Amino acid sequence: MLEYGTKIVAGVTPGRAGVRVHGVPVYDTIEEALKVHEANSSIIFVPAPFALDAALEAIEGGLKTIVIITEGMPIKDAISAISQAKRHRAVIVGPNTPGVITPDECKLGIMPAHVFKPGIVGVASRSGTLTYEIAFWLTAAGLGQSTCVGLGGDPVIGLDFVEALKAFEGDEHTKAVVLIGEIGGNLEELAAEYVSTNGYSKPVVAFVAGRSAPLGRRMGHAGAIVMGRAGTAKDKVEAFQRAGVEVAGRPSDVAKILLKKLRSTP
Question: What is the pLDDT of residue 266?
Fold first, then answer.
């Protein structure tokens, strides 16, 4: 993140105050760090059993964007953190997210930065690796990305597709949006409903992973599991199609579809 140009002003690890890591000073608490430095975001790598404490400390410290890289955060803890964030008008990205990147400006996460280039497509994704692959194709097509956000692969997450769509619609640099979904939950269906009922003003293309996934078996992410009739790839694809959102058959098709849509947009 430092090499990418992100302004990491402080680290926080209890009991390690006074240490420097890659030149960045470490403090025991966020409160102590904020007495010395100005910051608006926190990125959390704390192991799952302790991630809630780290998130609550960031929220109570007044930080407004909390990116939780941690995978496997207990569901009850995630719900508590997200609820507290809403009360403080803060945003949690994740848990189990690769982070957020605005190409050539800021990277708050663990994604391989070389595949991202500045451009016009906003990307919101439940899958880290698919984000990188589709970003590669967007870059190769000359479209690039405005901002890419990994929503996270755990069953309960903070920022969702609808909130990302709202943010991208208000962003002047974003001319089109890609939604990368996967089996499990109903986030894609809610996004489709939002696009349909609100007459979304920018072209949207989707990709849904897990079309061949067997019922009842978790596929990679904790949230990627089909239970009963809910959360299947078929349901998600059909919801997008009903909303007028074209769904790519392969990751490499996303950029091709977007190019056609942008050429036909006045």
Answer: 66
Judgement on whether residues 152 and 218 belong to the same structural domain of the protein: yes
Please say which residue of 93, 121, 146 terminates a domain. 93
Report the C-alpha gap between 8 and 30 in whole angstroms.
13
CA distance 63 to 245: 35
AA letter at 209: A
Q: What is the chain's alpha carbon radius of gyration, rounded to the nearest angstrom?
A: 19
Half-sphere exposure of 243 (CA within 13 A, CB side): 27
Its pTM stands at 0.95
Which helix (H) or strand (E) segment holds residue 54: the answer is helix 51-60
> For 1-16, what is each residue's pLDDT tens digit?
999 999 999 999 999 9
H/E element, 181: strand 176-182
Residues catalogued as catalytic? 221
Cβ proximity of 223 and 154 under 8 Å: yes
pLDDT score recorded for residue 239: 96
Q: Which residues contact residue 49 at a Cβ distance below 8 angstroms, ignoring those fewer than 6 apart?
A: 74
Token pair of 224 as six digits: 């990627």
Give just the sign of the alpha carbon dihedral 187, 163, 137, 5. negative
Q: Which pLDDT value is given to residue 265?
A: 72
Q: Which domain holds residue 21?
A: 11-93
Mean pLDDT score, 57-63 = 98
